[in-house]
Structure formats: structure tokens, C-alpha cells
Amino acid sequence: MSYVDEVLESVIAKNPAEPEFHQAVREVLESIRPVIEKNEDAFRKDALLERITNPERQIKFRVPWVDDKGNVQVNTGYRVQFNSAIGPYKGGLRLHPSVNLGIIKFLGFEQIFKNSLTGLPIGGGKGGSDFDPKGKSDREVMAFCQSFMTELCKYIGADTDVPAGDIGTGAREIGYMFGQYKRLRGVFEGVLTGKGLSYGGSLARTEATGYGLLYITEELLKSKGDSLNGKTVVVSGAGNVAIYAIQKAQQLGAKVVTCSDSTGWVYDPDGIDVAALKEIKEVKRARLTEYKSYRPNSEYHEGKGVWTVKADIALPCATQNELGIDDAKALVANGVKAVCEGANMPTTEEATKFFQDNGVFFIPGKAANAGGVATSALEMSQNSERLSWTFDEVDAKLKGIMVNLFHNIDDAAKRYGFEGNYVVGANIAGFEKVLDAMNAQGIV
Ligand code: NDP
């Protein structure tokens, strides 16, 4: 059996009931197979793949807090510190009822390669909890965040592990967590990113993942002699990534006609009104059912349906495995040209293959949404310098990073004979740097 297959088998056996983690490992190991097989004996001898698929450390803890009725609630907190070969662990904190160890491990594993692709010195980690901020009062969210940080603060720090936002963790949650960290540890340091601008946050961090997604999409189209101008785009999600993806797509001349949340989706033939969307989601924290009162010409539908709308470009920006094979078939039948992932692993393996087999350009999340973590690393740099850069400075750096990233994954795919396969390109380009650093640092 080949070394890659041996390790895949053992990852599945040793990490039972973690299907998302298996999926993420399988995708990476299948992509880097050509690199491994060139030098299989040496990789096996060093147990390189066993080391890279085992987190350096995983922390699981109890998070008790008191709700508004005076009842004690108990959630589970996680931090997986996956790989620190190229820098301190870096990756978001997800607060969602679906969170479990397997989800956090899949996200942490992906994060290693994503962070490497940014070209910045950040290792891979991820964390979160099965706490659901939806429907909770501000006081309840604060109680949870303070309890969560009371335990997490023992394991993180500006030079060791720097968490950030993710699903369910926005500016409010980061603020409460930062306050508790500072209180417990007695230091004001850049231990979290995605902070408010008044206490060390970076301009353009809020916009970064969505903007970065559009910068890489534009560069992809440019490499094919095309552009976003005049294109119809479908977006899923209505959170941080989706909102700023829609905004930048519109600035680049595209028309975005959909968005969604976990209960339904909106079709707006005139193009999504970003100001209305921001008010509904960022200010009122309400459901998308409200969108129609701002835009009477739009349609609201319960359930899923974004991928049935005819479009040139599809940008999944909600959550993992939200775009399956039937969705891919509908998009291809409607003539989609490119799919770029704003969310982490939103496309199933089968759907990804279908796109690739049908000539659709496909950029995986670890490359396409890397603008978020890249700008988090820029926030860390500003915190270390005790300086703040202007919006335009940060945005220009972000754009440069995404343009370079596209060419790096494009080149890596070409070097191994997989021209146009950006999944292989991203995994190989991300892996090469981590591999080099791991080799240099010996068996640790
Ligand atoms: P938000 O919490 O701001 O928004 C998530 C959006 O997706 C919401 O509209 C939410 O709807 C929807 N959603 C979440 N879970 C589900 C589900 N199970 N089914 C259907 N819809 C769902 O998160 P972000 O925008 O920050 O993150 C979106 C994705 O992008 C995630 O995969 C995240 O890991 C990834 N990402 C985020 C980065 C960032 O900087 N924020 C960086 C890189 C990747 P509802 O409100 O109804 O729950």
C-alpha cells in the first residue's frame, strides 16, 4: 500500500466519527500525493504525514455560565493547536451548535495550509464551542465569553496562539473575550484579532475575507482574459464573508442576485442592496425575511435554493458542505464559469470533482478565503509595532497577497502537471513551505 493510503487509513481508524476531518485530510493528502510519491521512503521514515495529521495539542474544556433566568448552562470549549512549524497558531473561534472536535480539527487542519499560502509567518489552529449566540441577550453572550476565556487564556498569547472570529464570533464576542483575557492575564497584547478599532483592531479586517475572495476571483478571471465586470454572481450566506463579498463584487462591476441564511434565501433581480443587508444582519441581527420590506421586487424563499439561480460565478460563503452534487449540476447546467469558496469546505468532494470535470474554474477555500487570516496577521504586525495602518494601506497589502497567492497556486499546479487544478495547486503550495520548516526543525 502506498504511504498516502496507509496514513489515510490510519487517520480514519484513529479518529472515528469525525467525517469532516477525514474529508479535509483526504483532500489534502490526495492532492500532495505526487509530492510524497517522488520521495516516499524518506517521508515514511520521518513519519511526516503522521505528524502533519496529528494536532500538536488539542484542548477541550467545560464552559459553565449563568443565563438570564438564573439557570446554569454548560457548553464545551475547544482549541486545537495543529501545527506551529511556520509561526504561532492562528485561526478562528467558531460558536455554533454544530461544533464538535471533528469540525474543529477539520478547520484547524485546513488552516495550516491556508496560513502557509498567505506567505505570512502563522501556524494553524482553530477553536470554538457548541454555544449558540443566536437569541441570547448581550449579557448572556458576555457571560459565556468570559467563562470561555477564563479557561482558554491559559493556552494562548500574542506569540503562541492568536485566535480570531469565525461563524458566530464577531466584534461583540471578540470584545468580551479580549476584556476577560486582559483582566485575567494583566497584559494588553494582540492576543486576538478582529478587535474593535478603538483597542488594537485593524482597518479592513472586517471586509478582508469577502474582499480577498473577490480579489482572487478577479485575478483568476484576468488570467483567462476575462473580468468580473458585467457578470452575474450568486452568493450564499449573509454573514461577515458574504456581506463584504457582495460589496466588493458590486464595486468590481458584477451583479450579485442572491444571499441566504440558515432559514431561507433571497433573490433580488436588481442586485442585493448591501446597506439593507448590513442593517438586517449587523444591526438588527434579524432574519432575511425582513429583506423584502426594503426591496419589494425581491423574492424570499424558505430552505435552500441559491444554486438554482442562473449565474456566471458562484461564491459559497455560508458553511461546510452546503453545495452538493445536485447543486453543482444545476450550476453547470446554467453555465457557471467559476466557483470560488468564501466559506471553509462548502463544496462536497463529489461536487468539486463535477466542477473540475466540467471545465468550471474552482478555487478552494483555503486559498480563496485566506484574505481574512492574512489581514489578521497584518493586525498582529500592527499590534507588535504599536501602529495603525490606513484602510488603503491594509487593503493594498491584502490585494497584493491575494494576487500572489493566485499565481503561487497556479504555478504549483503547473509544476506537477495539473494545470488549472487549483485544489492540487493550493494544497501543494501550502504544504511545501510547512514541509520545509518541519524538516528544518527536526523530529518535534
Ligand atoms: P457568520 O456567522 O458571520 O455568517 C455565517 C452565515 O452562514 C450566516 O448567514 C449563517 O446563517 C449561515 N450559516 C451558518 N451555518 C449554517 C448552516 N449550518 N446552514 C446554513 N447556513 C448557515 O460567519 P462568517 O461569514 O464569518 O463565516 C462564513 C464561512 O466563512 C465559514 O465557513 C467560516 O469558517 C469561513 N471563513 C470566515 C472567515 C472570516 O474572516 N469571518 C475567514 C475565512 C473563512 P444564520 O445567521 O441563519 O446562522
What does this structure look like?
- With 444 residues, this protein is α/β, with parallel strands linked by helices.
- Among the domains are: 55-187, Rossmann fold (3-Layer(aba) Sandwich); 207-368, 3-Layer(aba) Sandwich (Rossmann fold), CATH 3.40.50.
- It is built from 17 helices and 13 strands.
- It has helices spanning 3-14, 19-37, 40-45, 48-53, 101-117, 138-152, 171-185, 205-223, 240-251, 274-283, 291-294, 325-333, 349-357, 365-368, 370-385, 391-415, 422-440, and strands spanning 57-66, 72-83, 89-95, 123-129, 161-164, 232-236, 255-256, 258-260, 264-267, 299-302, 313-316, 338-340, 361-363.
- The strands form 3 sheets. The protein has a 5-stranded mixed sheet, with helices on both faces.
- Helix 6 crosses helix 7 (171-185).
- The two termini are 26 Å apart.
- The mean pLDDT is 97.
What are the key terms here?
single chain, Rossmann fold, five-stranded mixed sheet, 17 helices, binds NADPH dihydro-nicotinamide-adenine-dinucleotide phosphate
